[in-house]
Design goal:
globular; alpha+beta; 8-stranded antiparallel beta sheet; 3 domains; binds coenzyme A; Aminopeptidase; 11 helices
Length: 355
């Protein structure tokens, strides 16, 4: 297989990577053929990658010439000893990158400029707080006239994902287990990326579940976070919590685990926050139709083995009626597990969400 095929990424995935990035590196040349490289905020509008710049600037001198914009997301640094205890050769970086080739052009029409500026504002100031960027709006008529908006007319977009595709399935399992043991921020997500890009990788033992056709998931991404929130909707401890708040809680938690069917349906979720010293477990839930098969036990075992939870001196949770479920993992009530030297009082301040 050619290297480009081995590491190739689907165009829509490359586009998504590009859109999610808050900046790109833009390379072009000046009149004398000298290289220009700049870091730019960007927004894609159809087949145009738009930028905003001062009218008289180095970046504008590349107009009419070929240019390349690129962005990348580092998934994990992979040390050599994950696969080879002696040689340094296997050390590498897992990453995803997207590169756009095209020609740099100036956008002259107020409508085009407004569309790019609106897309840039939507990325940089998603909360709004300004009049809509519309070429017909008197608020912007003058400003848009004097504004320099230039764009890369996209001719080709190429994505690359280097996530262990060159390794044997057995080596990939070693890498996955190495990531799980190391547990740096992002490592659990890198395990899921490794499995996604290499579906022939045998499932690492830590992700096996007792239910046929269901596997444990080391990290839930943003789409999974939204699904987790739907799954949890109506649970007794979330009655006053809107679904999007639960989804955000998953996105912001250091630890998010779950279980999925082969078809990708999320059937169990749990999360934890952790500062390395104390971890708090929240939102443990198995889909009703999957309960009673050992999935909850496997899920909590994975959660407790997660690097951010594993090393914590205290792991805490509260429950209404699942006390005995947690006991087998060593959890005890505060009264049963006194702190030597003093008796702590648990305190809380309750107030409306988001106040
Ligand atoms: C609690 C929950 C996660 C357990 O998931 P599950 O997949 O049904 O659990 P398992 O099949 O792995 O059960 C493991 C063991 O715990 C026991 N158990 C399960 N739920 C229990 C509960 N609520 N209280 C006490 N023991 C429980 C099981 O009987 C089993 O013990 P056994 O092997 O001796 O029979 C699941 O019932 C659930 O999602 N409940 C609703 C949400 C909830 O209450 N979450 C906990 C909030 S703190």
């Amino acid at each position: 297989m050619r290297k480009a095929d081995l590491y190739g990424m689907r165009d829509d995935a490359a586009r998504a990577l590009l859109d999610a990035a808050d900046h790109v590196h833009l390379a072009t040349t000046d009149e004398a053929g000298g290289p220009i490289l700049r870091t730019m905020n960007h927004a894609r509008v159809g087949d145009v990658l738009g930028f905003h710049a001062a009218p008289v600037g180095e970046k504008m001198s590349g107009l009419g010439r070929p240019a390349v914009a690129s962005t990348e997301r580092v998934l994990a640094l992979i040390p050599s000893y994950f696969v080879d205890p002696v040689r340094a050769c296997p050390a590498t970086t897992y990453y995803e990158s997207a590169m756009v080739h095209g020609t740099l052009v100036a956008l002259e029409e107020p409508e085009q400029k407004a569309a790019v500026m609106a897309a840039l504002m939507a990325k940089l100031q998603p909360e709004g707080g300004h009049a809509p960027l519309d070429a017909a709006s008197p608020v912007y008529a003058k400003a848009l006239g004097g504004l320099a908006v230039f764009a890369l007319r996209v001719e080709r977009i190429a994505g690359k994902a280097k996530v262990g595709q060159n390794r044997t399935p057995a080596d990939r399992v070693r890498v996955a287990l190495g990531l799980w043991r190391r547990g740096a921020p992002g490592d659990a997500a890198a395990i899921e990326a490794l499995l996604r890009y290499n579906p022939d990788t045998p499932l690492p033992d830590v992700l096996r579940s007792p239910v046929p056709g269901v596997r444990l998931v080391a990290h839930l991404d943003a789409a999974d976070a939204a699904r987790a929130a739907s799954l949890l909707e109506g649970e007794y401890w979330l009655t006053d919590v809107p679904r999007e708040v639960t989804a955000r809680a998953f996105e912001r938690s250091a630890v998010t685990v779950g279980a999925k069917t082969e078809a990708g349906e999320l059937v169990a979720v749990a999360r934890a926050t952790s500062d390395g010293k104390t971890a708090w477990i929240y939102d443990v839930m198995v889909a009703p139709s999957r309960r009673g098969s050992g999935l909850g036990r496997a899920l909590v075992a994975l959660l407790c083995d997660h690097p951010a939870v594993r090393g914590a001196a205290a792991v805490r949770l509260s429950t209404r009626d699942a006390e005995n479920f947690y006991r087998e993992f060593g959890f005890r009530t505060l009264a049963e597990s006194p702190r030597p030297g003093f008796t702590p009082v648990e305190m809380i301040v309750r107030r409306p969400l988001g106040a």
